[in-house]
Design goal:
The protein is an alpha+beta fold. It folds into two domains: about 140 residues, no CATH class; about 90 residues, no CATH class. Helix content is about 15%, strand content about 30%. The protein is built from five helices and 19 strands. The strands form four sheets. An eight-stranded antiparallel beta sheet has the order 6-7-8-9-5-4-3-10. It has a five-stranded antiparallel beta sheet with strand order 14-13-12-11-15, with no helix packed on it. Strand 13 and strand 14 form a beta hairpin. The longest helix has 10 residues.
Amino acid sequence: MEGVFDAGMISLLKLTPGIIWKQPGIVHQIVDPLDWVRLLTMQDPMTVVNVGQWIQVRKGPYKGDLGFVTDVEAWGARVLVIPRLKTATPQAATLLKRKRTVIRPEPRLFEPDVFKSVYQREPKLQDNGTYTSRGLVFDHGLLQRTFDLHSISPAPVAIPAHISWLFDRSSHPALTFFNIPRPDEWTFEEGERVVVNSSNKEATIAAVKDTHLEVDLDTGEGIVIVSWHNVSKVFAIGDFVAVMSGPSQGTMGWVQGIEEKITYLLEYNEKGNISSDNTKVSFILILVDI
């Protein structure tokens, strides 16, 4: 390609996959064949994603995973994702040899001691509180990754509950209950009774938002904003309930007992009678702070 090497050309090169801009010139890198067609459809990075936005990874080892954008540059975005680190166990190695397939590691928060034990190398603690090891950067248990703008897309409003919980548990300063989306499996409606876990105060849901709930406290303090992970539904013995998600989805029955976050149900069958064996079904209550 020939052209005038002016500010406009430099800006275009910065947006082109496979070309990395470094002062005082450019460094050429082989373009992935999957990006060849995408080169014909250049995009303005500021219109694709924004800082504080949730995205979904479209390709690579984290394909399908959700991430939180912390920085947007001309070359792409810096994103926080939940690490998927391989666990070097004898059982996993044996399974890989038999099946000759790649087993995708489960998402888990980074823990320095666990990392050192598994990989036999100690991650280096940086002055800013992050840990680094062989090019990987871990921040509050999350992994910092960089993606070009063709590798990510806006994420749905709700995210899986276990992923939401991991992001919440990381306590990363960029993540607050105002920007962690609603767990996809959870169902809350206006007028429902809940208890605020942090204060143990009961309340009524006044409004359901994408990232939080507004509840009217019974104490007369008025309406307050609470995170999804700071409320539990209020149930009483004798209530007839239905499980909306999880392994016991579809189960209906009467609440027979409540112990912390476990609810015991006397199962209801299709004939409308108590099960012949009078079996009690125990399951983890879905709509609670886990």
